[in-house]
Write a structure and sequence with these properties.
Elements lengths: L1 H33 L11 E5 L8 E5 L7 E3 L4 E7 L11 E5 L4 E6 L1 E4 L7 E2 L4 E5 L16 E7 L2 E3 L8
Antiparallel strand pairs: 1-2, 2-10, 3-9, 4-5, 4-8, 5-6, 6-10, 7-9, 10-11
Bound molecules: zinc ion.
């Protein structure tokens, strides 16, 4: 009798657990649909030079004419999270910006030539220019970049996602 009761309880727990997992999946599917972002640069003047993979959880976008200085746009309404000025020429992101969006989303823009931020700014809108594309090899602020491009990362509650699934087509 008792043993049967225990079995039944553990069975119920499994059911509740799988229901929770299921709800979580539905929820993330909905978020995926709702979160739509604009492209961080002018699509017509750029192309993707490196896509998203397990070892590059970001996309790299470079200018067709290879010249630096293209404007970088915020992909969605945002709060400034981090604006990092770095003189590094060989390691890391170099100059980079992290923006916070609604529902735990963040985006990162790296290897910037310069950043358009003023002391005291708290928030901004989708499409605001936040900086300019850099990344020339060996230039201060480029970090480990070997050529002009923007390294664009997108995360949901700290977990990297493939930005290609979220762009407005
Ligand atoms: Zn990259």
């Amino acid at each position: 009798m008792l043993l049967r009761g225990v079995k039944e309880i553990s069975g119920d727990r499994r059911y509740v657990f799988s229901l929770q997992v299921c709800l979580f999946h539905i929820q993330s599917k909905i978020f995926k649909k709702i979160m739509k972002i604009r492209y961080p640069v002018d699509r017509k003047k750029t192309h993707i030079t490196q896509g998203y993979s397990w070892r590059h959880k970001a996309i790299d976008i470079a200018p067709l004419d290879k010249g630096e200085g293209l404007p970088i746009y915020a992909v969605e309404d945002f709060a400034w999270d981090r604006v990092v000025q770095s003189n590094s020429r060989w390691i890391g992101y170099g100059n980079h910006i992290i923006l916070k969006h609604r529902d735990g989303w963040t985006t990162l823009y790296a290897h910037l030539l310069s950043m358009k931020y003023k002391e005291g700014w708290k928030t901004g809108k989708a499409g605001d220019i936040i900086g300019y594309m850099g990344g020339k090899r060996g230039k201060p602020g480029s970090g480990k970049s070997t050529g002009v491009h923007v390294h664009f990362e997108m995360k949901s509650y700290g977990r990297p996602v493939n930005p290609m699934n979220y762009f407005i087509t």
